Amino acid sequence: MIDQNVTDARTLRLVWPQWQGAGRDTVAELLPEVPIDRARRSYALGTRVLQAILPDHPGPTEVVPVDGGNPDEGSTGGVESRSAILASLAAAQRALARHDFDRVLTLGGECSVSVAPFAELAHKYEDDLAVIWIDSHPDTDTPDTGYDGFHAMAVSALTGHGDGEILNRLPAHVDSSRLALVGLHDWVPDAYAHVDQWGLRAFTPTDLRKTSSGLLDWLASTGAGKVAVHLDVDTVDSAEAVLGLGQVPDGLNRAQIRRVIGDIAEVADIVGLTIAEFIPRDVLAIEELIDGLPLTR
Question: Under 8 Å CB-to-CB from 209, ≥6 apart: which residues?
């Protein structure tokens, strides 16, 4: 992979352990072996693991608090845990506003943690920014579709679709012609319909297993010189490693994802990277094992 210097003083590391955007019922269904309250917060645990395995950052770091609002309020206006989502978004925007940065690395948390930093990058770089959304799912739900978890509305919000109050809080949006869905191969029909309606470009794992050329041609066609990359770890083929909440087979493998991102870095300036949706199942298991043992508190 190309060695882009993304750890200098002009790079903000945004640690955002948001978990409230994942629908409660979905978490219960896909992580049934863990008690629901702990399972929902496993995104925050995943964030701490990512912090632990990355090298120390010499530049600025912000940790976004996620304890505002009510995560148990259900769906309001088609968005579950709405007050918690709004409170967390506001906290992230305050954190971003405290810094003058060129690049941002975001550690999540569920997928919606890309919304605030990518919107800020869109405000900064305008039409010179493209977004590459590496994810098994399109994340194009809205309050009018069947799923109310905000993490599935992240692409919608970035491209100016969905909940009006949330959209009005963002400093900019990304035109749909400059956002590509990469690794897409799992969806529900009502959300997927928006891919064509909004003019989003989609690349399946099959499109990218051997070469990134089609994606690079698309990127060149946008005219953008800067790229924000969102990486939902559930894009990794679950037959190779189960890293996300759901077990999604037939995705890209880790080497292919690294190649795709490396190829992007060869031709563009990566100014944003988000790592999202990591659920550390083994850590959850050891946490349950040692919880409350003598001398552990």
Answer: 252, 256
Residue 38, domain member (yes or no): yes
pLDDT of 157 above 90: yes
Query: The domain that contains 170 carries what CATH number?
Result: 3.40.800.10
Q: How far is CA 140 from CA 90, 105, 125, 195, 271, in A?
A: 22, 23, 23, 7, 23
pLDDT band at 5 (very low <50, low <70, confident <90, very high): low
Dihedral of CA 101/236/109/156: which sign?
A: positive
2 pLDDT exceeds 60? no
Angstrom distance (rounded) from CA 198 to CA 217: 20
**Among candidates 144, 120, 108, 123, which has minimal Cα distance to 19?**
108
24: nearest Cα among 9, 43, 39, 6: 39
> Which tens digit of pLDDT belongs to each residue from 265-297?
999 999 999 999 999 999 999 999 999 999 998
Overall domain count for the chain: 1
Task: Using a cut of 0.90, tell me whether the model's pTM lies above it.
Answer: yes
Q: Which CA distances in Å does 260 have to 35, 66, 110, 160?
A: 36, 32, 22, 26
Q: Is the residue at 257 inside a domain?
A: yes
Cβ proximity of 64 and 92 under 8 Å: yes
